[in-house]
Every structure is written in structure tokens, then in C-alpha cells.
């Protein structure tokens, strides 16, 4: 066989020992340089000598277009030589065409397929429109942190202008290919179990081994439950991405066969399902440690966050075009979540749409297994598939990138396709630097109130209402005033807050401050809470002024700071000022929340907010001891009692027809902060826990205080608590015909055929300060048929819902301000 045949090239690559823990990257790089020279591509080596990143580039006819990246990794996992039929680094080829070797499936075969595909296309005279990059990275098999993860952050990667990427999937045992659009998150966990040491003939209690047994049993029971979820599927191996797998990979403990050890260390490999809630699963892990007993500690060696998947539906033009391309080739693909971790997660993490696709079908899954092989037929078929994708890529990638540019980048186009000035202002003002970007960057902990005030001043000038700023520069309160014909009458106030809660951008499909509009949904932090309401107020006044409407009562629109951190320096202070008193407010509207069904939500009351800080003090000592009366023991009692009540409260909602609107009738408890300890080998003297409590409107504050006192007493000596915040219970706003403002508002709603549910707010709003000042106040946000996403990832408002709200507030303002 000539030396430069595809099979010979693959065999040469397999024979290079890039297995961990000491991969020979130097030889791999030299091999790849020779291949680049053979196929006529320039090659550059990035990274470091110990972690090299090899890049081959085939320049396109239009290099200004976003490029296409084909990625593979050089490294392979270790082997146990005695478990292989053939030398795993000899690349032995049997008479029936099987090429054995570590990396034959994962993924040296695919790296060579890329190279051979380019060579084949060049021989056929194909010239790509877009630049194509072939990337060969290190370190993937040990996490990729110093390989792809580091490279995507570099200026070299950014200069590649990658618009789309292909990475690995896995072999398919059937007549179709697996395509990965998402992947599970990799967690590595070390559990340390400690207890008394002793002679092996004794039966001491609470040994490290007993605790380790409990931990192992719980983890493996969970593993079996997950296995049973997919056991009845025809191809359960293809469903692994939908479950969480747990595997015990290492155990350490003991010094002699007749001595009970004082420490056992267990290491678990966990792949967290794409459907699993990370916080809930982490809590479950901690619950296992707690169940195992004192002296059991959990350490996350690695804990990857959930990333945004590449969508495989009609909303993703990349997918629709790719599927069309594969259909033309007669290739069947099954989109699934990757059961392992690949470098694609780092590409998705920087916003590059990526699919895992390895052209291996009718092949047993042997990556990381003994006797890993690929057949010559399957290997050569892959060389035919990839060039076809490259050729089609010159067409379909261009369409995809163009669509994404239109959808995601072009602010001008986004504005022109919106309907009406109201949407234009909501959407464009959220995006453009001169407008909503300043307003939208009012995210804690450093809200840009100066930019927000500038934005609001500009809007006030546009609609010709009086503009004033009160409070302080760091906590401004903006007030619009539309003077009524009878200013001596009590005025109407409509309130919203300027600030928004922080975001984790990595968990958003779109950037949370770009106001991206897709399929009628406007995504952005504050799109539900409450920048949408602010713009609805403004647009309502705009429409009323165009109608030449003249209000009988004065209308005030207020925009307050710091609601999301309590509101104490914003509305809390403003209602105490002479300015507020002179406003003579007779009725106020503040925020409520989205109604998920047909009805709107109206808040006339809200739960009382308490913050409880518990301090647990105990005997300090060395971490190898099991002394009594520790701070941790007391903290565990406190935590358990708080959450036992929390679970009971949650159960009170079970069975109710609409539990999402009943939360104001129960008391919620959440541990929000915990702090304790200075060294990893020292039992801390003090542990401090902070609990956020929202006391039900039906709960007696005195009874909650009594429960709290009893709980602290139960935890033992050295446990105390204080309350940094304890709001007082306030009377609800009465909603009956005796309240002329509510009657007018209700009539307005009913006349349009709207329904509403009157409930107590489950959270704290600025409305409580207004009620405390004696102003009848309701919380009302014109949001229905809308999922509750305030404070959540991918917060959005639907265009039709937003515009409906403008009309609703227009009617409500007109009705309230016309009261005589």
C-alpha cells in the first residue's frame, strides 16, 4: 500500500503515542505539518509547546465571510495493554478491513478524514467561497481546559471569524449518523469520609467505611434509577444525554488490611443531563453527604455550567440547511444530546453554533474501550461525506450566516420589521447605545442610573410632559407630570423601577442587553420586570396626547431606583419627602407579574419580608477529629429545621388548580448565604447562615417569631440570630365598589372582556411603601399568556402582549384621570 493512501496516513497517526498522561504532541505536530504540506495548506501552531493547537487554513474566495471550522483532537485516552487483542498503537489492519488502535474512532480517524477531504476537493478543482479551517487541539480527553477552552479566548481564534463549527459525535451502531446539538455537563466529585480509626476486629460506630458505604449506595441507586429511565428504549445508548450518569472511578483509604482507616476518599465521574436542574442536583449531592453523617465532605474538582445548545428545529437556519444538505446525500441523522463532553461546548460557549458529527455508522461504539477499531469501509465513506458538506457549505452556510446576521446583528432591520412606534421604541431603545442600552445597563451591582435618567429625559421631551429628578445622583427618582384640568383633585401615579437584576450571560440564548427580537419575542433583562411597563406608560401618554385627551386629574409617572435590592433608598425614601406629599396621590399602580393564562394578575397585598441571620458557634479543632458541639453540627440542625418547614409550605400548594398564583398564601424560606471556616483542615469556630423569608399574608407574625425562637433553642448553646430586615405587616388595598379608583379600573378591564385574578404578591414591590404612606395601591402589569421569566434566563415579552399592554394602560389612565 503506498505511503500516502488515506488508510496509511491514519495508521501513521495512530502509531504516534498521544495517550495520556504523557502525550507525544511534538511528534503529532510534525506529522500534521507534513500532512498540511502534502495537501497544500498553510499551517500555524498556536498554544504552547506542551499544549499545541495546530491550524490548517484553506482560504475562501471571500475571506470576509464568517468561516467554517472542522475540529478534532490529537490526544487519546490511556489503554490497558493486556486487554487488547492487538497492540493499541500498532494500527493493525485485519483481513476483513478492521483498523485497530487507540484513536481509531476517537478521533484520529476524523482528523485524517478532514485532511483527505480537502485533498480530494482540491483535486476536483473545488474552490470554497468561505475560508475553511482544520483545527487539531490537545487536552480534550482531560477536559480541554488548556486546549480548546483556552484557544477560544485567544485573539488568534477571534481573528478566524468562525461562523459555524463541526466537532465530533460518536459511532452509530445503526444505519444512521449521530449528530450532537448539546451535551451533558461534566462534574468531577471527591467525597471524603472520616471516622475513628481502630483494629479490624472491632465494631466501632460511625467509621469512615460506614459513611463511604452510604455514599456509594446512594450514588449507585441514583445511577440505577437513571438507567431504568432509558432501559426500555430500543437503543438506550442513544438516550444517555437525557439522563444523568454517575460512575465511581476511584477509591482511596486504608494503610493495612487489619486496621480500620480514619479516612476514605471516593471519586465520582458525573455527567449531568441536559434536562437536569444544576442547582437542584447539587443540593441532592449535598443531601447525600448530610445523610452519610458527620465528617463527610464534598469537593467539586470540576463543575461545568450548563451551556446554550445549538437548536435543531426550524428556528435555527443552520440546522434546517444542514439537514437539507444531508438529505440530498441520502444520509440519515439522529439529533441527540452528547452523553459525554466534547470541545464543542467551548465553541458554543463563545457563541459559535456547533454540531458534533462523526461519519461512522454501522459501527460498534468503542471509544475509550478495549480493541477500539474502525473499518476501512466506514473510514473511507467518511472521506466522501465531509467533502460533500464542504461543497454544500459554500451555499448553505452563506444562507445561514446571512439569516443570523439579519436576525441577531442588524439593529436597523430589526427596527424596520417591527410594527409601530411602540415596538420600535421598546426594541430599538433597548439596543441602541443612545437609548435603551443606557437604560438597560441599570443592572446591579453597578446600575447606570445616569444613562437611564438621560434616556427618560429625552422621552419626556418627546411626549411633552414635565420632567423632574429627585432623590440623589446615586439613587435618582424620575417623575413625569401631566397636569390635569383640576389639579386640586388627588392625582394618579403609575410606577415602574429602573433597575434590573444581574444576569449570567452564558445561560442566555441571546445577549440579555441586545433586545433581540425573534418570532415576535423581544428578549432582554427587564423585558418583563419592568422596563416593558415603563415604555407602555410612556406610549400610552403618547397616544392620549395624539387624541387631544385632557386629563381631569394630574397624572404622575414615576421611575424609581433600587427596587431589586429592596427599594429602601428609592421609593422607601421618596414617600417620606415633601415632594411626594405635594403630589397628593390618590391612587397608584405598581407592578404585578405575568399571568400565564387568560387572566391578568392584580396585587392588592404582599407578603412580609424578613431576613434572618443565624450565627452558630462551637468548638474549633483539627479537621481530622470528630469532636462534639461543633458549629457544623448546630448549623445542620438549623438548616434542616428551616427546610423542613419550607417543604411543608411547598406541599400546601400541591393539588391547587393554579398553584402559581397561590404563593402569597404560603411562607417561603430560602438559604441565600452561608459563610464559615478559614482553612480546609480546620473545623470552623463559627458558621453564619442567612435566610430569606417571605411571611404569608395569612400568617401571624408572632407565631413565626415563636417558631424561630424554638428552632434556635433546639440547635443548642452558642446559636443566636438577628434580623437585618423585618418589614411590618401592612393592610391590604381594599378592592370593592367603595374604592372608586378600583371600580373605574375594573370597569375598564371588564368592558374589554378581560379577566383578572386578585392575589397577594409573593414578592416585595415598591407598592408596599405607597400603602404604608396611606396610598391605595394595586400591582398590575399588562402581561398575560406569558411565562414567568422575571429574574430568569431568557426573559422575554411577546410583541403582541407588549402592544396589548399599551392599549390597556391607555384605557386605564384615561378612565382613572377622568374621575371627578
Automatic annotation (TrEMBL):
GO terms for molecular function: aminoacylase activity; metal ion binding. One of its GO terms (biological process) is amino acid metabolic process. Residues 187-293, 610-715 form the Peptidase M20 dimerisation domain. It comes from the Eukaryota. Signal peptide: none annotated. Its EC number is 3.5.1.14. Zn(2+) 1 binds at residues 73, 106, 168. The keyword GTP-binding does not apply. This is N-acyl-aliphatic-L-amino acid amidohydrolase. It comes from Apolygus lucorum (Small green plant bug).
